[in-house]
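Quick one - inputs below.
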Amino acid sequence: MKQILLITDGCSNVGLSPVVAAAHAKSEGINVNVVGVLDQGDVGELGASEIEEIARAGGGLSRMVNMRQLSQTVQMMTRKTVVQTIQLAVQKELKQVLGNGSIEALPPEKRGEVVRVIDELGETSGLKVALLIDASASMKPKLAAVEEAIRDLMLSLQARQGKSEISVFHFPGSRHGDDCVMDLAWTSHLNGVQSIFPKLQMAGTTPTGPAIMQVVDYYRQGQNDMSDYSRRARNETDGMMGDYVV
Amino acid sequence: MTTSFKLELRRGSVVVGKWRMGRYRIERLLGEGANGKVYLVQRDRDWLAMKIGADTVDLQSEINVLKSLDKQRSLETFLYDVDDLYGPDGREYPFYIMRYVRGTTLASYLKQQGPEWFPLVALNLLGKLAKLHKAGWVFGDLKVENVMVADYGHVELVDYGGVTAKGKSVRQFTEIYDRGYWNGGSRSADPGYDLFSFAVLCIQLHEPKRLHALTKELLPQNRSTSELMEIADNCPGLKPVSGWLKRALMGEFADAAEGAEAWRALMHRRVTRNSPGMPGWLKGLAATSGLLLAASMGWLLLDLFL
Ligand SMILES: Nc1ncnc2c1ncn2[C@@H]1O[C@H](COP(=O)(O)OP(=O)(O)O)[C@@H](O)[C@H]1O
Ligand SMILES: [Mg+2]
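Output:
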């Protein structure tokens, strides 16, 4: 199962529409979840509807939360999406068997077994979550909470029986106007990772759509040439290639 | 995520199950949580509890656990009926009927009956957890709201939504009771997970304000079991069990039975000295443990054909 989890606090303002990008992700079998983080006020009506639409286009969930709820929300959303992804696949299968794919339409005594299979698959299937973090200036005071939420998610995923991996990206790229930068390549633990976002230069635009596209690309490349990608990521963290990721 | 759940059933209204036609008269709302609402209902002359779910799959998953537990426990049945109802809004909602657990929440019981009931109530709770552990389960979402206490400190667990088979990832938890939240270990279901939550619950009962303040003031990386211990050590009501709490927080008890034994020994000492728990589409999911899953899928399809 593949997911992208976008954490943002407002509106995209350059490049491809994030809704279109999320639809691309979905067509690649990647579900896009979106968390909108609020400070005191709100993300504005535009931001809110964009967040909702990105998730809808990406076949995922969206939530507006304040910083204190971030970890819990990220954890529950990921879990819920896993169940939904499997549920969809199971329903597709049921449709071929029963001519009706909805679990609700089954009589209660038949649901038990279907749900047992969903639960089993949810626990044991491989799972990849790419976290895409909006690092535009307004997000700066929230990055500590974001990092904490990522660590908390890793802890939950590690408890699963199936293989679970995360990767982390932020956008926009700092120097050369890149759409997004990889902070962490696929990994199943954060042992020894001191800081996920070491001294970020937060500046400029919010290219949410192009950033999503880049992560989709990362997933696609990962299928062919994973090693090349992580090598580039390593170069990236060494600062040898600046912000050049793709 | 609290699912927005607007359904409200009026006192005196009668619900008839869509599939099994059971008739239930609504008496009153007993409580609600993140996953549903629980009503006190009457069928014939029996008082029962009806849990209405916001999500069919989530609720069914809980029902599956209750079914396995009922098979394992030789005593009283807990789960009575599973069905769907039509809400006043015309929508269908899944529900199940369970035993009505009389009593009040743990916190209000101790407030009403006095703190001298704490050691016994806690011991009884450990006894309930021990039974689950023995049957291969972990309760998961142990917290004040999910423990009901009736006369003479009789304890009953409610909300089986977090109950997880040993070795799997805990299905549902609440941050302040969660071992992972306090950097005290994994979120894998093992008996120690419940005992950790049990220790937090003891602290929550005695020092709710200080515990709450601690969650506000500590940076996530600084949350630790020793911070929890510090509260316990400075609380007169917990002093006699502070050694026990430390062992629970450190994961030193094999299971709740062992924990209960140690707790009982403590109580005894206190009392004598002076007074007072299918193949194709599978690949599409990038599933890993293929064999096991293919097998369970086989059973599923077989079951549906029969
Ligand atoms: N069998 C029962 N008998 C009496 N009260 C119950 C019963 N089950 C639940 N309740 C009450 O309803 C509340 C919510 O039920 P719960 O199962 O915990 O819902 P949720 O899964 O949404 O948290 C509980 O905290 C408890 O007060
Ligand atoms: Mg509950």
